[in-house]
Structure formats: C-alpha cells, structure tokens
C-alpha cells in the first residue's frame, strides 16, 4: 500500500522541502485538488486489451494505466450506452432518471431532467475548469440537456452517436460536430481528432486551476472504420472468437458466416488500436506538463463489447455482450491511475458501477458534492486507495430493451446471487426465462440454479419488479426508426431549443393537478407518472413515497 507520505500531493512535499507553506505559486495552489480525466470507450470487449491477455490487438496506453494504477476488476456498466452515461454523470440509477431501457435516439426529445445535478457541476463549483471532448448522447432537443448546460465550460465533439470516423461526421444526414455551439469542419480520423483536442486542452489549460476532463470516444462503436495503415496492420487477423453463449449474438455470427460476410474482427482491432493511441496522446501531454503524478485517470467502457457479427468484439470467457445482462454485457474493462495515491499494479475486486464514479472521484479529489437528490452510487475510494473490503449488501440492477423492442434483459445481483430475466413481451402475453447464478463462484455463468432455488428467484424477482416501477412513463424505450415522417436537421448545432426560448418550469403534462397522485397510483407497474418517486404498496397499488407526490 502507498505510504502516508507518498499520498501527499507533490506541491505539499515541495513545501516541506522548502521548509515553508508560504508563497506557493498559482500552479502549486491548483494542485491542492488533483486533476481528473475520465476516458470512456464505446462497446469495448472484456478480452480486447493487453492486460487481459490479448496478444494481437495492441493497447499499450490502457495497459500502462493498469500497470501504473489499479485494475477495477468487477466494474459494471449498464448493457447499453445512454444509461451508463446518465449513471456516470449523476451518480443516480438510470431507471429513476427515465434513461434505462433504450438509448436516446436522434428523433427523441428526452434527456436527463435539468433538476438532476451533474458531476462536472460539483467540480466547477470547487474551482475546476471543466471540459468534454467526444460523444454526449444524453439529450439534444433542448439546450437544458446539452453539455454546456450541465457543467462543462468547453465542449468539442458530437451530441449523438454513430457520426462516423471520417468527415462529414453526420447523424441521419445532419452534420454533428461542434466546438462550443459552433459548427466545425475539422478534417481527419475522428478518434485522433478527439485525442489531439484533449491533449491540446491539457497543454493550454489555465495552470492556476485544476481541471476535470471527460473524453468519451465513439470507438469502437459500429459502423467500424479505421485509417489505412491500421487496417493493413490487422488485415491478416483471424477471427478465432469462441461462442458468446448468447443466442442473438451467436446467431448473428452464424448468419454472417453462411452469407459469406467478412469478419468485423480485423477492422474492430484497428479501431481499438487507434483509440488506445489517442489515450496515449493525452497521457504524453500529462507527462510533458509534469502533472501525471497528481492527475486521476479513469478508463472504462460504457457496456460490454458488441460481440455480434458486425461488432467484432470479444468478451470471452464472460458470457454474452452488449445488450445482454450476462456478465459480458455489463462487466467491463476498467482501470484507474493516480500515482500520488494508488499503488501501482494493484487490483480491486469489490463490485463498482458507473453510478459509483461520481461519489468515488469526488471523495478522492476532496471535492464537495453539490447534489440535492440522494445518490444511488457509493464511494469505493477506501477500497481503491487502501484495499479495504467493501461488500455489496444491496442489489445492483440493470436493464436493456435493445435491440428488439419488447425483449427485455434484466438483472439484479450482489456478491452472492445474480438473477437474470429475459422477458419476451407480446401483444397478449409475456414469457419470462430466469437464470440464477452464484456469481462469485460462477463468474462465467455456466450453471443455472433457477430451478434449484425458486425462493431466491422469487425474492429477487420481486425486487426487480419494484425497481422497474420507478421508470417514468415517458422514459426511453427502444426505437430503431423515427416516427413516421420525421426529418433530421441539416445541422444539429441548430437543433436544441435555446434556454431563453423555453418556459422557466418543466411541463406538468395533461393530468390535472388534483388527480396526479391518484393517477400515479393507478399506473402501478407501468411506472411513475410523477418524477423521482419511490413506489410502495398502498391499498393494493403503487404509490409515490417522497418527492413530488407528497408536495403537489
């Protein structure tokens, strides 16, 4: 473990050496709080990094963070994109936020409620300069949902996903590339553009303040593209992946082989390599600026690898992949480095989720959290810094309705048990398949114990049911196509409605005020009519315990 002296920030050690705490420079004062960089991959496979044994795809930068820091070995993201980003930014459960079952599509008008507090807002209040470089995917229809309204001083990147890796960087035909609300036409490979911008930000920062930098890549999300030299580098790579043990994923690969489609694996490898190079650009900038020692660097993936035919990722020995609630869909690559406080080459095996990042990073950095709503995440900093065991005593829940509408993958788990429900919902019926694992003993999910322990299945299923009732009625559901006749803008910079064009209060909807609580109760398992409400039993139906229902 690091010694207490080693945990002292470099500016404090320097002050001791000088025998004074007096006239420190502005840059030294900034080091009272560490800088923070969060890298987020998009669909990275568990097996696709060097430190997990990958011998073909080169990931020296990610491996360096692992070697110089801690492996967060049981880090969990949600099965799909937007929910993880919502959990990361708020420390709150995506189910209660209404961003759980599906991602925010371009034709959707929702985002995360403006009353929710975002992590960069706390850092900004603590005197940090804040920046985001990359993919947002947390709302775009109103300015209230966008990065610069959620605590980021600087935003370079895209409001959406799937903008492509080469110009013109568009979504649904509308250009989606901006710097602080102004359309840009920067040329080059998208992943490298993000790496260069993030490195530039580090070098040109205000040295009198610490910084909070969020870098969410689109890599290695489909559709996959890479520079010619990297395509050539991996052109002869064999696709020797073992079955994912997930029906949709394995069926997609089988169909691709039968129809003689080329494997996506070589291109995927090239895309991962490029992302790792971009991370290296930023790590090099930290070294050159002499601030690597006291900069927290966190890397993780927004969900498990897209192991289906067109995705190219590999999560083996974990089961399943993106969209699943098997481990391959939610247990993700994650490493964290802070040389001043974290022992190099260590491993943390307590369960940690994307919801836990906000409380963990703020505790580590000594930053006061300014959230008013109670966080669903917990701080894992004692486990990371001191190796303290932090058991998971409460269930952790995840859900996905992607890619097939009406097919839900749900899970609840703790240190001992993991229940997975696969729900196929038809017009007149629903079929539920349950999988129960002793996840600590069976991390690869080979032995389904559901029939042997029906009491455990029932108990956990009831908790899943209550959890799902938190979902706001108009929250995200999966929708692959837009409403009939919907058209995309020519330029997504112009799309969000400016704050000054919006009313001051959030809309209350069509339900009359005097009936809102009654209607909320009557909706029951359909979800919440009122925002941020906990369901509990009242006269045989759902009610709202707390928040809006008690005061309206």
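^ structure tokens above, recovered residues below v
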């Amino acid at each position: 473990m690091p010694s207490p002296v080693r945990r002292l920030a470099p500016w404090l050690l320097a002050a001791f050496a000088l025998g004074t705490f007096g006239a420190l420079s502005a840059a030294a004062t900034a080091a009272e709080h560490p800088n923070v960089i969060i890298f987020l991959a998009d669909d990275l496979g568990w097996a696709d990094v060097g430190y997990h044994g990958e011998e073909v795809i080169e990931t020296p930068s990610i491996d360096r963070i692992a070697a110089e820091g801690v492996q967060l070995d049981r880090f969990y993201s949600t099965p799909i994109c937007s929910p993880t980003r919502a959990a990361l930014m708020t420390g709150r459960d995506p189910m209660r936020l209404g961003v759980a079952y599906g991602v925010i599509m371009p034709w959707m008008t929702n985002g995360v409620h403006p009353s929710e507090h975002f992590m960069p807002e706390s850092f900004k209040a603590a005197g940090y300069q804040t920046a985001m470089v990359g993919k947002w995917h947390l709302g775009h229809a109103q300015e209230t949902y966008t990065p610069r309204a959620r605590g980021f001083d600087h935003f370079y990147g895209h409001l959406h996903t799937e903008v492509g890796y080469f110009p013109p960087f568009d979504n649904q035909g509308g250009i989606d590339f901006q710097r602080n609300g102004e359309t840009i036409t920067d040329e080059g490979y998208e992943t490298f553009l993000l790496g260069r911008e993030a490195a530039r930000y580090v070098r040109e920062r205000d040295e009198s303040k610490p910084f909070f930098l969020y870098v969410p890549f689109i890599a290695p999300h489909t559709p996959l593209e890479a520079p010619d030299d990297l395509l050539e580098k991996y052109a002869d790579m064999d696709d020797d992946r073992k079955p994912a043990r997930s029906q949709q994923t394995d069926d997609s690969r089988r169909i691709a082989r039968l129809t003689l489609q080329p494997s996506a694996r070589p291109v995927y490898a090239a895309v991962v390599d490029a992302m790792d190079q971009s991370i290296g650009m930023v790590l090099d900038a930290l070294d050159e600026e002499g601030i690597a020692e006291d900069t927290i660097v966190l890397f993780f993936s927004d969900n498990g690898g897209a192991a289906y035919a067109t995705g190219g990722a590999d999560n083996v020995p974990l089961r399943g992949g993106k969209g699943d609630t098997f481990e391959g869909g939610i247990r993700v690559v994650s490493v964290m480095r802070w040389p001043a406080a974290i022992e190099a080459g260590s491993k943390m095996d307590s369960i940690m989720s994307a919801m836990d990042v906000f409380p963990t990073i703020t505790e580590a950095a000594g930053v006061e959290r300014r959230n008013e709503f109670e966080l669903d995440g917990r701080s894992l900093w004692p486990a990371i810094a001191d190796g303290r065991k932090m058991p998971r005593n409460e269930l952790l829940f995840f859900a996905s309705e992607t890619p097939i509408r009406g097919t839900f993958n749900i899970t609840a788990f703790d240190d001992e048990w993991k229940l997975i429900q696969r729900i196929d919902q038809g017009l007149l019926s629903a079929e539920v398949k349950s999988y129960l694992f002793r996840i600590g003993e069976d991390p690869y999910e080979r032995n389904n114990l559901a029939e042997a322990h029906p009491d455990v299945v029932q108990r956990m299923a009831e908790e899943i049911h209550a959890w799902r009732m938190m979902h706001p009625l108009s929250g995200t559901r999966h929708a692959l196509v837009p409403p009939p006749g919907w058209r995309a803008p020519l330029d997504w910079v112009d799309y969000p409605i400016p704050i000054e064009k919006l009313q001051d209060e959030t809309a209350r909807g069509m339900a009359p005020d005097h009936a809102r609580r009654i209607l909320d109760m009557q909706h029951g398992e359909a979800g919440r009519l009122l925002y941020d409400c906990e369901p509990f039993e009242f006269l045989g139906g759902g009610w709202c315990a707390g928040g809006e229902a008690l005061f309206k």
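The two ends are 52 Å apart (CA to CA).
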